[in-house]
Amino acid sequence: MKEHKPKKVFVEGAITPAFIADSIAKHQSKTDIGAHDIFLGQVRADEIDGKKVSAIEYSSYNEMADEVFYQIRENTFEKFELSCMHIYHSLGKVNAGEISLFVFVSSSHRQQAFDACRYIVERIKKDAPVWGKEIFEDETHQWKVNS
């Protein structure tokens, strides 16, 4: 099995549309790719106990998270026939409506891309030591509970 070098996953603040578009554009020259699948996690303006979420502040135990994300990448490459994979997760404050998670996979055929993208997102939610503090419009906050 080929090992892949660790990649930088964390970005400070929201993941911008320009960053996403640039990532997609960089793959036009890779003509062996027949399919891409993308997951974009966006901060919702949920209403909780009568208060609206205005942002989420993400934090992580970075050293452990880097290892977990590396393992997710390696496991995904073992399990699926992918040409490439990119995972980016926000740290710091991300406002409602902004993107906090960007998963981008490419493969020769669509089914591998679909399955791999779902697998990655579920593994991140289950295993990655990343936490979100919901910040409400009144500036109070609470730790987010993943469902």
Describe the protein in words:
It is a single chain. With 147 residues, this protein is of the alpha+beta class. Strands 1, 2, 3, 4, 5, 6, 7 and 8 form an 8-stranded mixed β-sheet that branches. The radius of gyration is 16 Å and the shape is globular. The chain has helices spanning 17-25, 62-79, 110-127; strands at 10-12, 35-42, 47-48, 51-60, 84-95, 99-107, 130-136, 141-143. Helix content is 31%, strand content 37%. The model has no long low-confidence stretch (mean pLDDT 93). It has 3 helices and 8 strands, in the order βαβββαββαββ. The longest helix is centred in the middle third of the chain and has 18 residues, at 62-79. The protein has a single domain (14-143), classed as Molybdopterin biosynthesis MoaE subunit (Aldehyde Oxidoreductase, domain 3).
Topology, please?
Layout: E1 10-12, H1 17-25, E2 35-42, E3 47-48, E4 51-60, H2 62-79, E5 84-95, E6 99-107, H3 110-127, E7 130-136, E8 141-143
Helix pairs in contact: 2-3
